[in-house]
Amino acid sequence: MGNEETPPSAPSTTTTSTSPKKLTLIPLIFLIYFEVAGGPYGEEPSVKAAGPLFALLGFLIYPFIWSIPEALITAELTTAFPGNGGFVIWAQRAFGPFWGSLMGTWKFLSGVINIASFPVLCIDYLQKLFPVFQSGWPHNVALIASTLSLSFLNYIGLTVVGYIAVFLAVVSLFPFILMSLIAIPKIRPHRWVSLGQKGVKKDWNLFFNTLFWNLNFWDNVSTLAGEVDKPQRTFPLALLVAVIFTCVSYLIPLFAVIGSVVVDQSEWENGFHAQAAEIIAGKWLKIWIEVGAVLSGIGLYEAQLSSSAFQVQGMAEIGILPKFCGVRSKWFNTPWLGILVSTLITIGVSYMDFTVIISSANFLYSLGMLLEFASFLWLRWKSPMVKRPYRVPLSLPSLVIMCLVPSGFLIFIMVIATKVVFLVSGLMTVGGIGFFFFMKLCKSKNWVEFSSGAEEDIRENGVERDVL
């Protein structure tokens, strides 16, 4: 390759080469879909917050501001550095192990706390059909049992999870397709351009947070790069298809329901699509969409738990975590310790009133994304000769502009956060910094064994950074 730098020879490429099965294109597309969306569930508050027109414009325009740039960056950096550390590898390669470790802290905490909401969501929908699960020990037992069952499913193999994601997506999306088709004769296009009910104040905080919640986490799939068949070719195509598929899955039901159903704007809460289905087609479709919400929650849980578990395994491979954190199951080749740790945190958080914690997780995610954009630009400028099987076809000044727009949005989301969110996020960040120096002490004292992957990688590629 002449004077091109080669991508890092991360241990993940060696470790996972013996894996009997790897993710192919179709399962990867649907895993990305469940990392990000999982269906139109959760888009309804955008109408309540800003009215029909702004809701439609939001889901039309926001992907160009946020989703596409994030997906492009993920495609380039994942194909250049195809290890299970994903965004941790990118920050470590750009700015050194300290920033790699802090990136890992921010992303892992935000991801695992986010995962905790999905078993709760499943139980919330189930209790509508089975009231016994509303409270008390039946609710607690159901929550633990569902979390452990879903985690065990993750344990038996990533390829299994990938094909389950395909099935769950088809079953959970089909009622929305039916609802949209049945709604066609009832659609009145003038309703699409409504600015909302008179006298209803716009809630821009809710509006932008709804868009952010429904269209982020594109980079989470990067932590599975070492498990993908021919990642240099598979990832860019999978991300392209997933972006289109996700945007369409949000927009079609939104156009259909807004155009065919007239209700008070305040009724556009989470879960309103199920009520709209009953208005449009009958109770049978409402029940199907509610069942689909449970299936979507399962898919979201599986995809995001996989990313968190393989992030732990990838961080062990590059020497940020102790080597034992990367242990895999002998039967299924899955990172069982990463799955276990993520599951235990998920169970703990799911019993808390975690509105503030989830807001703090979003704050940490935003910090991680700012670091990710900086890592992308720095690597393009500092290491232009690194082989990039997929390369965003823009010059460096254009890439700066591409990153500045979503970065401005991230800063806006962070500025409007409450003081409690600032405090909790600050404590979590301080904890992450302390964890880095504790790991550094463990390495210097030889208390536990670390992989030498990070040091070897940096020496081989000439990145002048201090290592652990």
UniProtKB/TrEMBL annotation:
Name of the protein in question: Polyamine transporter
Keyword Cell membrane included in the entry's annotation: yes
Membrane topology label: Multi-pass membrane protein
Residue ranges crossing the lipid bilayer per the database entry: 23-42, 49-68, 108-126, 138-157, 163-185, 237-263, 336-357, 363-381, 393-414, 420-439
Cellular component GO terms held in the UniProt record: plasma membrane
Pfam families, alphabetized: AA_permease_2 (PF13520)
Protein family (similarity comment): Belongs to the amino acid-polyamine-organocation (APC) superfamily. Polyamine:cation symporter (PHS) (TC 2.A.3.12) family.
Database matches in InterPro entries: AA/rel_permease1, RMV1-like
GO molecular function list: polyamine transmembrane transporter activity; symporter activity
UniProtKB keywords: Cell membrane, Membrane, Symport, Transmembrane, Transmembrane helix, Transport
Gene3D superfamilies: Amino acid/polyamine transporter I (1.20.1740.10)
Superkingdom, taxonomy of origin: Eukaryota
Localization annotation: Cell membrane
